[in-house]
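INFO  loader      accepted 1 record
INFO  loader      residues=189
INFO  predictor   begin
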Amino acid sequence: MHGPASPGWLLVALCAASGAYCLLRMRSGVEEQRRAAGSEAVMGFAMAVMAVPAAVFSPPAWAWPVYAAVFGAAALRSLWWARIDAHHLHHSIGAAAMVYMSVVMTLSPGSHHHGHGGSGVPLLTGALLAYFAGYVLLSGARLVPAGGAGAATVRAGAGGGAGWGDRPELARACRLSMGMAMVAMLLTL
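INFO  predictor   done
INFO  writer      dumping tokens
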């Protein structure tokens, strides 16, 4: 992605940390959680690679079509699993956004304005930004404890036996951070 180096490195760190935590979540005893964590780990690491500042590493021209093909396959896989769990629909939209960003980078590598014709934000970019901004707001709201600080303490104590891979609040925080990273990446598009 094109943009300043410092925020780019912060985005790389955020996405890589999210991907690493999702790998830990794959150790869960719940199959559906492992499947979702695997998709999220791939997304986190791929976003980290895509966010490396162009001044440091500029991928070869063939990398963007490969990205598009890999994430096109991931989008179709997530659509298949969405019939069982609706959360996979979000994974499919995320993978489709990665395909879109890869196609844009393929068409105009190295430029800040990617030839969408006219001025302003292209319609698809705007729609993806609106979706992920809404997702970030909803995910952030889900992290706020419903019953205040006392309820949060009780829930934390009750879930103390859960392993790192089975902590729903950490999974939500991971999804929130990847949603924010997706917004940041779409803004630099």
